[in-house]
């Protein structure tokens, strides 16, 4: 194998998110929207999750052993502001403890302010992101975090995957029966999120002048199912709808011409105020965080024989998602594994926005099994990560400003629909959906493999 050495200051890391990993329910935190969610198979709710709340020191020692340069995690808004209004100093202290522990072990903290979770009180009072009041609540929360942690934390993210964050109707209480109203709400929520992150960014520049702040996108790489022009157009429309719509607004400060028309034609264009325009135009992110799992393929007409479960943003009258016959679906990844998609997607993003990028999520879900000798031989995950890191290398070699890589996830977390049946971690958490057990940490083979990648700063031939 060719020697593939990454730049000296490349940020090797790993990711988690608060509501999926922390647990510690009823301990210094209020009810979150995520607590109200039910995972179909059993009791793997977010109340215990991976019990990180009670394993902070042990988890940071594992990160240190792995050689991580950066840890991408998120703050639990409901721990910091249980009722969405008042500050809980003990909640802040928990993050001081985590951040101090990371810094003492040479790991850079990289928090996201909003990763799908918010105090349930904000949903009850205002209907969450549907209301402009939620913008004010987010900005207040962001300023508290900047003030509290800004002297120690220099790399931040505003909102994780805006597209997916507005999509789950149950977490956002977007439960109107009328589909048109639901769709209208969805774009209004999405608009409020952009506005919130832009206003927060303006405060960030004042309050943490030596820090960097970015947006995290669920990168969409969309292929036409055939070379028929109507399918090519469907793919272009899909990209407009699920990728550029959010990012154009947050980065360029306006929707694209076609997407504006799309929203107006359907009477779902969000309500905006004159004074918002100033915030939208300014306050650019310093970088883009990129989450990528797989590409997706679309066609113009609905194929009778195919139907895949899709998040709401993929339900559109302009395109239909289908299987890609060139890619092999896996147990949990319906679209199939596509490392080239990572390369294609990053090129697209760079061509449009010319911002530095860090991979904030990339990973392989599997129902891992503990072998009789106690090991977890997740060779499939090693293969997946190797192929994607190779694409990162190729991008860097070609001069794209990709400055870090954080696989999802550092340890097993509650996955959004399947709980602990579906695992992504480098570290196994010993629990099932129905039995919390001890939540003991067990290093998978991918842990040892990734440790070597970091040690060698890439792949040694
Ligand atoms: C990303 C999210 O969309 O995908 C994570 O940022 C999530 O929070 C991850 O866990 C994997 O998705 P899932 O549905 O398999 O848990």
TrEMBL record:
Matches recorded under InterPro entries: GH (IPR017853), GH_1_N_CS (IPR033132), Glyco_hydro_1 (IPR001360), Glyco_hydro_1_AS (IPR018120)
Q: What is this protein called?
A: Glycoside hydrolase family 1 protein
- Residue ranges of coiled coil: none
The family line of this record is: Belongs to the glycosyl hydrolase 1 family.
Q: Kindly indicate whether the keyword Hydrolase belongs to this entry.
A: yes
Highest taxon, organism lineage: Bacteria
**MF terms in GO:** hydrolase activity
Q: Name one Pfam family in it.
A: Glyco_hydro_1
- Locate the active site: 361
- Keyword terms: Glycosidase, Hydrolase
Family annotation (PANTHER family): 6-PHOSPHO-BETA-GLUCOSIDASE ASCB-RELATED, GLYCOSYL HYDROLASE
